[in-house]
Amino acid sequence: MTDLPDWVAAQLPKAARHPGLAIASLGDAKTFGKGGFKLSSPAFDAGEELDPCFTAKEEDAVAPPLEWTAPPPGSQELIVIVEDATNPAAAPTAQWVVWGLAGQRGKLLEGEMPPRAGKNAAGNSEWLLPDPPEGETRHYVFQIFATDLPLTLMPGASRDDVIQAIKGFVTGCAVLHAPFTGIPADDGDWDDEEAD
């Protein structure tokens, strides 16, 4: 496997620089951050740990909120692919594959259902809740792609289907990284406490 290209590697910590990330095959130095295109979250800063409320460690966990700036002019649609980039010996794990987002400045609210979602590594079309073993840190890379053509794939398409469909049509791309270290699961046993 080749290394992750310098233009994106510089934006990620060493542990998250998986050469198989979607952005490595879809983006390039010209489209990365083009025109100030940026992905962020009101729930965490780049490099900051994910809150357990976005992971399998809490019972009512949901997908984290995301926000993005205006993509380059001519962009028709936005696609978000989130991957676990921790294990360099295996392909990145698809946590979330989302498309159908308008090619303009926008956001996905916490737990919001996206317009269209593809299959994650577990084979369903939801946010795959991060669930590392206790004490193990995994690295999640949120990637956004703007395209100059709308994506015609049906919901439930795979990460690879999406990558093949948008290859060569990316006008801008950006990344956001968040690690998460496994903690004991919240058993939600709050009702056992009785007031005196």
Overall description:
The structure is a single chain. Helices cover 9% and strands 26% of the residues. The longest helix has 8 residues, at 159-166. The protein starts with 5 loop residues before the first helix and ends in a 15-residue tail after the last strand. The chain has helices spanning 6-9, 22-26, 159-166, and strands at 39-40, 66-68, 77-84, 93-102, 106-108, 116-117, 137-147, 170-181. The strands form two sheets. Strands 6-4-3-7-8 form a five-stranded antiparallel sheet. It has a three-stranded antiparallel sheet with strand order 1-2-5, with no helix packed on it. The chain has 196 residues and is mainly beta. The chain has three helices and eight strands, in the order ααβββββββαβ. The protein has a single domain (22-181), classed as PEBP-like (Phosphatidylethanolamine-binding Protein, Alpha-Beta Complex).
Overall average pLDDT: 92
What's the CATH class label? Alpha Beta
Q: Which regions are unreliable across 5 or more consecutive residues at pLDDT < 50? A: 190-196
CATH homologous superfamily caption: PEBP-like
CATH topology annotation: Phosphatidylethanolamine-binding Protein
H/E series, N to C? Answer: HHEEEEEEEHE
How would you describe the shape? globular
